[in-house]
Amino acid sequence: MNSYLTEPDLEVGMSEDALEFHRSSNGDRWLLCHDVHKATVVRHVPNAASAGVVSELAVAAFLSSERRGPEHNALVDLLSELMPLSREPAQPNVAPEEFSLCPAQPPLESHRPEAADALLLAVTRVCTFAQERRLTNASGFFFQQGVRLFLVTSRHVMIDVSGEHFPDRLEIEFHVDAENLAAATWMPVPLYAAGRSLWRQGTDDGGEIDVAVVELDRAALPPGAIFRAFGPGHLPRPGDAMPIGASLLIVGFPLGFHDSLHHLPVVRQGVLASAFGLRFQGKGCFVTDARTHRGTSGAPVVLRAPSKGRMPDELPWLLLGVHSSSIDMGGRDVQIDESLGLNSAWYADILMVLTAH
Q1: What percentage of the chain exceeds 90 in pLDDT?
Q2: Which of 14, 32, 38, 135 is the most exposed place for a label (fewest CB within 10 A)?
Q3: Claim to verify: residue 272 and residue 296 sit in the same structural domain
Q4: 139-160 burial, b if ≥16 CB within 10 A, otherwise e?
């Protein structure tokens, strides 16, 4: 969450105001400020225990560096909120990365959580890390079983042996201000403790299921965290009609793309492309026809809930499945045949098993 700091807070001899845009789980801080020459820079303040040295980089150099972390996303999000300084275009000595440190505020109504569909607040950005090295982006969503809260995503986000993907933690994003969707912060989610994995995954007669859950400690949630969560009541019932070709939504962060001001996912529309309730090719999944990309792994696949026989709900969606990945013909001639454009989604009823005591 962005916060304004002045000299006593920074403890690094600054005389001007600065804007903290990211604080890591180990206490490192990144701030947007002006250097002694009044140029806009990114200042990195290491945590006290590391005895590191405060460093500064020009905004453009910071954003173009090869080392990518949540601080880069946080700066991109912040810059989308800032209004460029007023200046004549003919001034040659003004650095292009100069910004006012006062966020440009759109009308308050557009910031309020009520302005967003509750479905968007049930989905969160996921970043994977190996120590301090950022690995991948993905999508995830919240599922509640009783009072217990879980993050749901694809199992291959947690570990992927074939892809040599071995993160040791995730970071997920939360809104933290009931009056302002632009205020958000990241929460670290460890994947191991005492050498043992903390997530749960499942298998069935068809093999591994590409769904995983990790329980979230409610006491560790960021103060003021705002989110919505699916629950058992959002799973399809035996009488719910799922006709072939039914229109459905896949809600996530394709290639990391999202509303960077309000920290909200985007929605791709698709259709049900296989018989719902049957195990496609003997696996616990069904097929969707939708345009998806990397970063959508772990996104919920939903259908508007029928009103008949259901109690009113602030999240009126049926949770059909968990998007996994695109599927294609193994022998397709890439020079002649186009991609199928189909995806696999694992049936959401596995969540009842993975979130049980």
Answers
A1: 31
A2: 38
A3: yes
A4: bbbbbbbeeebbbbbbbbbbbb
Say which CATH number the domain at 200 has.
Answer: 2.40.10.120
293 & 186 share domain:
yes
Residues 34 and 82 in one domain: yes
Q: What is the pLDDT of residues 81-102, one digit of tens each?
A: 664 433 333 333 334 444 555 5
Nearest to 271 by CA among 320, 236, 317, 313: 320
Last residue of a domain, one of 104, 133, 165: 104
- Domain's final residue, options 73, 104, 135: 104
Which residues neighbour 161 within 8 Å (Cβ) at sequence distance 6 or greater? none
**Whole-model pTM?**
0.68
Residue with tokens 């650095």: 95
What is the residue-wise DSSP string for 248-279? EEEEE-GGG--BTTTTB-EEEEEEE-S-TTS-
CB–CB of 328/340 below 8 Å?
yes
pLDDT in tens, 278-302: 888 888 889 998 888 888 899 999 9
Decide if 102 contacts 83 (C-beta within 8 A).
Answer: yes
59 compared with 235, residue with greater pLDDT: 235
Amino acid 253: pLDDT: 92
Same domain for 220 and 166? yes
For 344, residues 6+ apart whose C-beta sits below 8 A from its C-beta are: 210, 280, 283, 285, 286, 287, 288, 323, 324, 325, 326, 327
Identify the DSSP state of 60. H
**Within this chain, do residues 158 and 14 fall inside the same structural domain, yes or no?**
no
DSSP-assigned letter for residue 163: T
Question: What is the DSSP track for 17-51?
Answer: -EEEEEE-TTS-EEEEEE-TTS-EEEEEE--GGGT
CA distance 142 to 230: 6
Let me know whether 16 and 143 are in one domain: no
**Number of structural domains in the chain:** 2
Whole domain around residue 35: which residue ranges?
3-104
Range of 20-34, 62-76, 122-136, 309-323 with top mean pLDDT: 122-136
149 and 259 together in one domain: yes
Question: Do residues 280 and 308 lie in contact, with contact meaning Cβ atoms separated by under 8 Å?
Answer: no
